[in-house]
C-alpha cells in the first residue's frame, strides 16, 4: 500500500486528524518529486519519500509526547502547590515568578562562569568595543569546526561548547527538543531592518550561496536539503524554505500569528531550533553574512544564546514547555478555589485573585521578553535612545549614591544571621587586590559588566532594550564614573561572603541553622536534603589561603549525586545566591516593573510614558518590594519593628552622606543638617529616589521641573524644558522684549550633554569644573542677563537650602574649598 493510502486509512480509523494528514501527504508528494529530480524512478521515489516522511512524523510525535508529559507534570505540581494556597499567601504566584527570575539569573551566571576566560579576554572596553578581535575570530573558527592553530582559542571554544551542551541538555530535560549538532558555531541574531532593506531576492541568494545545505534540515522530511556536503540544492527547491524564514524575520514573528484578544501562549519546546536553522559552509561565510545581515558580533552572539537558554530553562522549570499556558493553569487553579468560597469573603478573594493574576501575566511577559516587542519600532528606538542619553547626562554622579550599598550589604547579611562585615571586607579586598584568579575560575565568579554592559544602568533603569550607539554612550559614563566598577565588586563580594559564611556552618544540620537563615532557605524551596547535599565534604571548596566556600558551580562538578539531581540542586542554589544578592545590592524588581509598565509596549504612547516614569526608580522599587517581603517573612511584631527601624535609620544616615557628597560635587557647601527638609531628603536618597527630596526644600526639583513632571520621568522633563523655553521666549516677544534664546540653548546643553553630571570617584571636581569653566563662560556671550541669573542662583541656594557655592557661578576658578562646617548649621 502506498504511503498516502496508509495516511488515508489512518484518518478513517481516527488515528490522525484530517488537517495533520493533509500536511503529511503534502510533504510526502513534495519529497517524491525531489527524489525523482535526483534520478530515482517513481517506485523508488515513493519508497524513499515514505520512509523519510514517516521517520520525520514519528520524530515529531515523540517530541510532542515528551513535551506533553512534562506539561502534565507541571499541571499536577500546580494543583499540589496552588490549591487553597491563596488563603495563606495571595502573592504565591508572583513570588514564584520572582523566583523564576532568580533562577534565570543564577543559571545565567553559572553559564558565564563556565566561559570566564572568554569573557575576560574579549569583554568590551569603556566605549563598547570588543577586545582582541583577532583571537575572537579564531575562537569563531574553532566553534565552527575549523582548526585555527591557536591553542588558547581552541581551549576557549571548547569551554563555550561545553556550556552550549549543558544548556541544550537542561532544555531538553525540561521539555525542549533540540538535537545535538556538532560545530554548532555562533547563533545569528538577524537584523530585521537590514534584511528588509536588502529585500528577499538579495538576502536569499546570499544565504543560498553561503549556506551548508547538507547540515540544514528540511522540516517537512527531517532530512538535509543536500545529500552531500558542498553540494547546493536547486535555488527553487529551497526558495519556499527561505521565504518562510525571511517572513519570520522581517515581520518579527508576526507572519504566522494574528492579532487577538487571546493569551497567545506559545510553547518554548521548539523555539530554540530556530537558531539552528541556517548553517554556513565556513566561519568566513558566517562572518560575511553577519557583517551584512547580523545584529551582534560573535562575542555578543555567544552571550545572547546562553542568556536566552538560561531564561527559557528557568521558565520551563517553573511552568513547563509552554510557560504561559502553565502560568494560566496555575491562575485557574487559584480562581477555581476562590470561586467556591461564597459570600462577601468570596467576592473579595476572587477580586484579589484576579488582580494578582493580571500582574502575574504582565510579569511573565516581562520575564519572557515579550513585553519588549515594540508597538512602533521607530518610535521605540528613538525614545529608548533618548532615555540612554538622559541616563548619561543625569547619572554621571550616581557612584556617589553607592555609599548606601555599604548599609544594604550589611543589613542583608545580618537579616539572615550571617556576618554583616564579611561582604564589606571582601569587597575592599577585591577592589584593592583583585580576585584570586584560580579561585574565581574554580568557583565561576565573573564581573557582570564582562557579559552585561548594561548591568550598572539596570540598577536605576530596570532591564532595558535600546539602540547600540546610545547604549554605548550611557555605559561609557557609568563605567567611567566608577559605578560599574563598584557594582561588579560588590556583587562578587556578596556572593563570596555568602558562600564563605555558609561553609562555616557546614558542620551543622539544617535544623541547627539560625532560624532566620533557615526561613530564608525554606521560603525559597531549599530543603534539609538540599543543604546536606551542598555541605557534603567533597562539595566544599578550599581556596589557596585555606578558606572554605560553598558554591553552586563547584558543587555541580564535584558532588557524587546523579547529574540530573545535581543540576536541579545547583540551579536552585544559584537562585538562592541571586535572591540574597538582590537584597544586598538592589537593582531591579520584576514586580515593580510590572506595576509600572502593565500591558504597555515600547513605542506606544502609554508604554513610553510608563518607561519614562520608571526611569531611575528601579532601585527604589527593588528596595520597596524586597524589604516588604523580608519584613513579612519575619516572626513577631517587635522583630519586624526593630528590623524596619534599623534599616530606615541606617539608610537615612548613609543617604545624608550621599546628599552632602553630591552637594560638594555640584560646587556647593554641604547643607545644614539641623532641619527637617535635609533629613527628609536624606531619607529619600537612602531609598533611591533622592530627586524627590528636593521638594521638601523647594517647589521644583534639581532639574527644574515640578512634582508631576518629576513623577512622569526625565523624558517628559526634557520635553517640559523645551516647551518652557519656547513659551518664555514667545511671551517676551509678545511683550516687546528681546528673546533669550541663547540662555535657553546654553541651559539645555548644560543640563543634557552626556558629561553634564559626570563625577568619578576621585577627589577631582569634574562635574562642577565643566559647569563653571565651560558653560558659565559661554553663557555671558549669549545671554545679556547672565550675571543676574548667577546672582539669583546663589539667592535660591541660600533661601531653599541654606548653603552657598564654594565655586561661585561665573568664576573660572574657585576662590576657596568647600566649607564643611556649614553642615553643622546653627550649631557651628
Report on the architecture of this protein:
- With 828 residues, the chain is mainly α.
- Helices cover 64% and strands 1% of the residues.
- It is built from 36 helices and four strands.
- A hairpin with a 5-residue loop joins strand 3 and strand 4.
Return the structural class. Answer: mainly alpha
Alpha-carbon distance between the two ends: 103 Å
Provide a count of the helices. Answer: 36
The geometry reads as: globular
Strand order of the largest sheet: 1-2
Percentage beta strand = under 5%
Main β sheet profile: 2 strands, antiparallel
Helix content: 55-70%
Q: Could you list the spans in which at least 5 consecutive residues all have pLDDT below 50?
A: 254-266, 689-704
Mean of pLDDT: 85
The count of β-strands is 4
What is the radius of gyration computed over CA atoms, rounded to a whole number of angstroms? 30 Å
Short summary:
With 828 residues, the protein is mainly alpha-helical. The chain has helices at 3-12, 18-37, 42-82, 92-114, 116-122, 133-143, 151-173, 192-198, 200-210, 235-250, 283-293, 298-319, 323-339, 343-368, 377-394, 403-415, 422-433, 437-443, 448-451, 455-461, 468-480, 483-504, 515-522, 528-534, 552-558, 563-584, 590-597, 605-614, 618-633, 637-665, 676-686, 707-712, 714-734, 741-752, 766-782, 786-801, and strands at residues 217-218, 223-224, 541-542, 548-549. The strands form 2 sheets. A two-stranded antiparallel sheet has the order 1-2.
Give structural attributes.
828 residues, mainly alpha, two-stranded antiparallel sheet, 36 helices, 4 strands
Amino acid at each position: 500500500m502506498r504511503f498516502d493510502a496508509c495516511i488515508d486509512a489512518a484518518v478513517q480509523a481516527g488515528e490522525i486528524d484530517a488537517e495533520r494528514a493533509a500536511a503529511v501527504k503534502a510533504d510526502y508528494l513534495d519529497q517524491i518529486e525531489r527524489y525523482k529530480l535526483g534520478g530515482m524512478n517513481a517506485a523508488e521515489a515513493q519508497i524513499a519519500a515514505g520512509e523519510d516522511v514517516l521517520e520525520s512524523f514519528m520524530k515529531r510525535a515523540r517530541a510532542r509526547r515528551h513535551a506533553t508529559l512534562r506539561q502534565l507534570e507541571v499541571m499536577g505540581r500546580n494543583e499540589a502547590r496552588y490549591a487553597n494556597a491563596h488563603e495563606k499567601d495571595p502573592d504565591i504566584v508572583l513570588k514564584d515568578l520572582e523566583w523564576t527570575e532568580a533562577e534565570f539569573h543564577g543559571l545565567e551566571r553559572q553559564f558565564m562562569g563556565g566561559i570566564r576566560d572568554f569573557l575576560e579576554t574579549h569583554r568590551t572596553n569603556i566605549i563598547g568595543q570588543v577586545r582582541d578581535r583577532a583571537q575572537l575570530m579564531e575562537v569563531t573558527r574553532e566553534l565552527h569546526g575549523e582548526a585555527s592553530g591557536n591553542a588558547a582559542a581552541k581551549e576557549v571554544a571548547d569551554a563555550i561548547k561545553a556550556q552550549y551542551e549543558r544548556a541544550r541538555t537542561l532544555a531538553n530535560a525540561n521539555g525542549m527538543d533540540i538535537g545535538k549538532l556538532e560545530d554548532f558555531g555562533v547563533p545569528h541574531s538577524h537584523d530585521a531592518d537590514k534584511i528588509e532593506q536588502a529585500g528577499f531576492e538579495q538576502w536569499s541568494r546570499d544565504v543560498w550561496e553561503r549556506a551548508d545545505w547538507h547540515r540544514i534540515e528540511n522540516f517537512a522530511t527531517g532530512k538535509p536539503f543536500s545529500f552531500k556536503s558542498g553540494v547546493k540544492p536547486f535555488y527553487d527547491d529551497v526558495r519556499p524554505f527561505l521565504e518562510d524564514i525571511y517572513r519570520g524575520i522581517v515581520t518579527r514573528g508576526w507572519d504566522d500569528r494574528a492579532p487577538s484578544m487571546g493569551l497567545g501562549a506559545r510553547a518554548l519546546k521548539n523555539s530554540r531550533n530556530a537558531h539552528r536553522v541556517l548553517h554556513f559552509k565556513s566561519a568566513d561565510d558566517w562572518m560575511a553574512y553577519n557583517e551584512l545581515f547580523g545584529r551582534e558580533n560573535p562575542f555578543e552572539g555567544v552571550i545572547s544564546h546562553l542568556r536566552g537558554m538560561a531564561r527559557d530553562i528557568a521558565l520551563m522549570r517553573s511552568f513547563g514547555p509552554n510557560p504561559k499556558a502553565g502560568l494560566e493553569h496555575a491562575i485557574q487553579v487559584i480562581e477555581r478555589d476562590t470561586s467556591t468560597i461564597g459570600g462577601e469573603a468570596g467576592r473579595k478573594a476572587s477580586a484579589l485573585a484576579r488582580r494578582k493574576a493580571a500582574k502575574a501575566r504582565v510579569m511573565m511577559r516581562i520575564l519572557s521578553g515579550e513585553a519588549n516587542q515594540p508597538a512602533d519600532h521607530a518610535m521605540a528606538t528613538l525614545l529608548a535612545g533618548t532615555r540612554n542619553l538622559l541616563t548619561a547626562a543625569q547619572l554621571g554622579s550616581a557612584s556617589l549614591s553607592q555609599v548606601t550599598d555599604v548599609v544594604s550589604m550589611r543589613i542583608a547579611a545580618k537579616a539572615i544571621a550571617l556576618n554583616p562585615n564579611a561582604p564589606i571586607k571582601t569587597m575592599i579586598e577585591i577592589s584593592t587586590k583583585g580576585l584570586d584568579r584560580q579561585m574565581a575560575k574554580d568557583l565561576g565568579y565573573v564581573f557582570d559588566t564582562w557579559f552585561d554592559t548594561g548591568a550598572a544602568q539596570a540598577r536605576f533603569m530596570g532591564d532595558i532594550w535600546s539602540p547600540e550607539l546610545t547604549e554605548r554612550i550611557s555605559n561609557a559614563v557609568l563605567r567611567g564614573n566608577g559605578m560599574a566598577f563598584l557594582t561588579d565588586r560588590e556583587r562578587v563580594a556578596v556572593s563570596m561572603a555568602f558562600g564563605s559564611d555558609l561553609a562555616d556552618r557546614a558542620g551543622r544540620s539544617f535544623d541547627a541553622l539560625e532560624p532566620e537563615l533557615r526561613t530564608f532557605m525554606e521560603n525559597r524551596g531549599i530543603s534539609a536534603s538540599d543543604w546536606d547535599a551542598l555541605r557534603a565534604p567533597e562539595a566544599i571548596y578550599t581556596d589557596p589561603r585555606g578558606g572554605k566556600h560553598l558554591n553552586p558551580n563547584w558543587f555541580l562538578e564535584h558532588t557524587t549525586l546523579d547529574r540530573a539531581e545535581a543540576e536541579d540542586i545547583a540551579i536552585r542554589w544559584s537562585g538562592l545566591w541571586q535572591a540574597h544578592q538582590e537584597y544586598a545590592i538592589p537593582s531591579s524588581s520584576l514586580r515593580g516593573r510590572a506595576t509600572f509598565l502593565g500591558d504597555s509596549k515600547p513605542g506606544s504612547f502609554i508604554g513610553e510614558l510608563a518607561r519614562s516614569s520608571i526611569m531611575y526608580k528601579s532601585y527604589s522599587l527593588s528596595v520597596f518590594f524586597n524589604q516588604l517581603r523580608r519584613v513579612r517573612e519575619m516572626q513577631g511584631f517587635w522583630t519586624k519593628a526593630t528590623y524596619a527601624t534599623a534599616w530606615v535609620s541606617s539608610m537615612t544616615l548613609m543617604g545624608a552622606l550621599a546628599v552632602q557628597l553630591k552637594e560638594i560635587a555640584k560646587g556647593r557647601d554641604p547643607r545644614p543638617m539641623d532641619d527637617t527638609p535635609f533629613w527628609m531628603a536624606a531619607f529619600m536618597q537612602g531609598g533611591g529616589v533622592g530627586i524627590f527630596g528636593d521638594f521638601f526644600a523647594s517647589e521644583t526639583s534639581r532639574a527644574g521641573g515640578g512634582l508631576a513632571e518629576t513623577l512622569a520621568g526625565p523624558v517628559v522633563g526634557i520635553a517640559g524644558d523645551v516647551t518652557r523655553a519656547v513659551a518664555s521666549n514667545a511671551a517676551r516677544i509678545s511683550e516687546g522684549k528681546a528673546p533669550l534664546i541663547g540662555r535657553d540653548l546654553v541651559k539645555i546643553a548644560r543640563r543634557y550633554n552626556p558629561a553634564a553630571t559626570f563625577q568619578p570617584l576621585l577627589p577631582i571636581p569634574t562635574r562642577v569644573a565643566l559647569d563653571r569653566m565651560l558653560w558659565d563662560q559661554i553663557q555671558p556671550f549669549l545671554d545679556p542677563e547672565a550675571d543676574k541669573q548667577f546672582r539669583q542662583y546663589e539667592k535660591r541656594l541660600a533661601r531653599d537650602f541654606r548653603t552657598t557655592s564654594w565655586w561661585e557661578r561665573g568664576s573660572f576658578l574657585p576662590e576657596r574649598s568647600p566649607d564643611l562646617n556649614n553642615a553643622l548649621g546653627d550649631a557651628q
